[in-house]
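FAQ

Q: What does a record look like?
A: Structure on top, sequence underneath. For example:
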């Protein structure tokens, strides 16, 4: 079983990742982004005014454009590979309704 690594975020939060992902993830500074439903770990890239967000869970899961990444346990800061599932928007919304 892989080691668990805690990634420090802003606002005294931390994301959880597998040790295998630590070299890539820990080479960047991450912050917490609070949405209407959850908190997500992300970082910004690009010049001011032209920045885009890199979402930690999507990076780890290799989520392709046009799909979403579901956190199986409902903890949006648990970005361990076994907790992430790529799916359609419709499917991701159906998980939210089940609570």
């Amino acid at each position: 079983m892989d080691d668990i690594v805690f990634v420090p975020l802003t606002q005294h939060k931390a994301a959880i990742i597998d040790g295998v992902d630590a070299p890539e993830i820990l080479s960047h500074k991450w912050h917490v982004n609070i949405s209407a439903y959850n908190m997500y770990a992300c970082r910004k890239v690009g010049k001011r005014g032209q920045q885009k967000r890199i979402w930690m869970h999507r990076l780890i899961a290799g989520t392709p454009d046009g799909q979403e990444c579901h956190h199986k346990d409902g903890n949006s800061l648990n970005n361990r590979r076994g907790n992430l599932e790529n799916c359609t928007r419709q499917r991701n919304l159906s998980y939210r309704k089940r609570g």
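Q: Is there anything notable about this one?
A: The longest helix spans residues 89-98.
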